Amino acid sequence: MRYSVQIADRQEYFEIPARAAVDVMHAKAVTIASDEEELLRYSLDHPIGSSGLETLVSRDTRVCIITSDVTRPMPTARVLPSLVERLLDCGATEENITLAIALGSHRPQRPDELKAIMGDYYGRLRVVNGGSGRYVHVGKTTAGTPVDILAEALEADVRIGLGNVEYHYFAGYSGGAKALFPGMSTFEAIQANHSLMVNPEAHAGNINSPVRVDIEEACSRAGLDFIVNVVLDEQKRIVYCASGDYIAAHRDACHKLDELYGVPIRQQYDIVVASQGGSPKDLNLYQTQKALDNAKLAVRDGGTIILVGSCKEGLGQATFEKWLVESADPQEVVGRLAKRFVLGGHKAAAMAQVMLRARVLLVSDLPDSLVESCFMTPFKDVQSAVNAALSLEPSDVSLLVMPHAGSTLPLLREHES
Fold first, then answer.
1. Cα(48)–Cα(243) distance, rounded to whole angstroms?
2. Domains 2-26+263-412 and 36-232 in one fold
3. What is the rounded average pLDDT of the residues 135-142?
4. If you write DSSP's letter for every residue of 116-181 in order, what string do you get?
């Protein structure tokens, strides 16, 4: 039979012979009763766990809206019109509204990327894209994480965080408080927070991940007044929106995500074809790793993961690349993290950990030599990778296709009927 997955902006088709037992993992189907604008307006009219924006904003209020960069599928350009219109209705002026890009440890956005993020508001709203480098220290969390926030965000009277909610491989879920912290924080603070990922409870789908707990404690010290969080379907359409308190509204969106994207499986598979879902999620290997981390839950020990992601911008982070290409084998990468946590190295170790129990074939636009230096087998098309994986298996092979592996979370239910 013929199947397909997305890589960058193109569709990759491939055939799987009848001898393989094939399953395809999709999010649950959702019927959209309202268009996106109606969903957004309804959410702003019915905030969760907080009062409405009209109690926070007046004419002289300086508002900072914090949103994601282009490596995230957050549809900022489609959310801003409803949000800005509501702020203007509350008395705010465009001159007093700033959009801040939550870069975290990522690079500043290029002008074309800012235009894609901001849509019609590009050139109309002031934008903070990397900031002045001035940070304000507002204390430490219980875990010892320094809470350092970009001054431009803290100088606003009201901070509003935007985000799309999906599974996060060590913070449990994306969205919520993450816009402000670590999105608007220092490298040192981000590294301290992310070092908590070594705790076994730091995994996708756990809302009580120690990383998430630390993030929300940091946010409570810095102050995030309101969030607008969306859940997207596999076509990147907004199917749900939760606005209001950065914890209560976030939890509401997480419940919706679980309804749509938590997918029970009754076995682990010999072969898993895992696509990050195309652009913008697969711009680099640093982001494509998220698909691998979900796919690992579905593959048996000694099986094969075919990871699909363009990675046209390369590996994506200097330390991540250094740890992979300078190590002799995956075990050395894992050992480095055990000795000392380093941001960027944490993702290299997460990838290496998967490679210790399964083969990883990478279908990408990266040079073969670079892929091989990262302990993966390179392929330029999915069909060739599938053929290679099948050649290693007996006739009764099981295979799972995950077209949106960075979003769908396999939940092993061995005893479900």
1. 6
2. no
3. 97
4. HHHGGGTTTSEEESS--S-EEEEEE-TT--EEEEEHHHHTSSEEEEEEE--EETTTEE-SGGGGTT
Model confidence at 216, pLDDT cuts 50, 70, 90, reads: very high
* Per-residue buried b or exposed e for 123-141, using 16+ beta carbons within 10 Å of the residue's own CB: eebebbbebeeebeeeebb
Contact present, 103 and 130 (Cβ < 8 Å):
yes
> What is the token pair recorded at 183?
């999105």
**d(C-alpha 28, C-alpha 373), whole Å:** 37
Contacts of 407 (CB under 8 A, 6+ apart): 27, 166, 167, 234, 261, 277
Across residues 138-161, what is the average pLDDT? Answer: 97
The whole-angstrom distance between residue 275's C-alpha and the CA centroid of its chain comes to 14
Both tokens of 181, joined, read: 């912290």
Q: If we measure between CA atoms, which residue out of 70, 102, 109 comes closest to residue 215? A: 102
Q: Domains of the chain: which residue ranges?
A: 2-26+263-412, 36-232
Amino acid at site 80: L
Task: Extract the tokens encoding 19.
Answer: 């001898």
Domain 36-232 grouped into CATH 3.40.50.1100: no
pLDDT surpasses 70 at 178: yes
Question: What pTM does this model have?
Answer: 0.83
Q: What is the dihedral of CA 177, 183, 189, 192, to 10 degrees?
A: 70
Q: CB within 8 A of 57, min separation 6: which ones?
A: 63, 87, 90, 91, 92, 158
261 close to 27: Cβ distance less than 8 angstroms: yes
Domain boundaries 2-26+263-412, CATH class? alpha beta
